[in-house]
TrEMBL record:
Membrane topology recorded in Swiss-Prot or TrEMBL: Multi-pass membrane protein
Taxonomic path: Eukaryota, Metazoa, Ecdysozoa, Arthropoda, Hexapoda
Source domain of life: Eukaryota
UniProt name for this protein: Odorant receptor 5
Pfam families: 7tm_6 (PF02949)
Transmembrane feature ranges: 62-82
Species whose genome carries this gene: Streltzoviella insularis
One annotated GO biological process: signal transduction
Any GO molecular function: odorant binding
Location of the protein in the cell: Cell membrane
Annotated InterPro entries: 7tm6_olfct_rcpt
Length: 155
């Protein structure tokens, strides 16, 4: 019983800090969406075009421009990977809030947890040019589309 009381006290102390941190993260994400949506979309498009055009070069030219294609691929992948990490962290946050032991808390704290769960269930998603979601699925489908395009046009 003593351990349960200590856990409840830990949750009560940690909950306000967690709420403030989550609010700051959501605010930062909204600012990122506002500032970088269009530039990210332009960068996504230019990297995809560069990657697909490099497939039409001869082997000698390909070696010459290898650093550019590696840069385009790395930037494209890192955008997608880091945004996927953000999406995964959002899901982890939701699970952490739900499994904090809210059923043992007072009614007022249960309402706070309920509001946090409602907020945490909203999907966090960054969009390139306010159209394309940035995640690993986008990376995979784009690379697949480039491969299909090059295969059809080149061969």
């Amino acid at each position: 019983m003593r351990q349960v009381d200590e856990n409840i006290q830990d949750v009560k102390e940690t909950l306000p800090k967690l709420i403030n941190r989550h609010i700051m993260i959501l605010d930062t994400i909204d600012k990122l969406k506002t500032l970088y949506s269009v530039p990210t979309g332009v960068d996504f498009g230019s990297n995809a075009v560069c990657m697909s055009l490099f497939c039409f070069l001869s082997l000698q030219e390909y070696v010459t421009f290898m650093t550019i294609i590696l840069y385009a691929f790395a930037v494209f992948f890192l955008y997608c990977y880091l945004c996927q990490c953000l999406i995964n962290a959002s899901g982890d946050f939701e699970r952490a809030v739900y499994s904090c032991g809210w059923e043992n808390l007072e009614w007022r704290d249960k309402k706070t947890i309920y509001v946090m769960l409602l907020q945490a269930q909203k999907p966090i998603e960054l969009l390139a040019a306010n159209i394309i979601p940035i995640n690993i699925a986008t990376f995979a489908s784009t690379i697949q589309a480039i491969y299909k395009f090059v295969t059809v046009v080149k061969f």
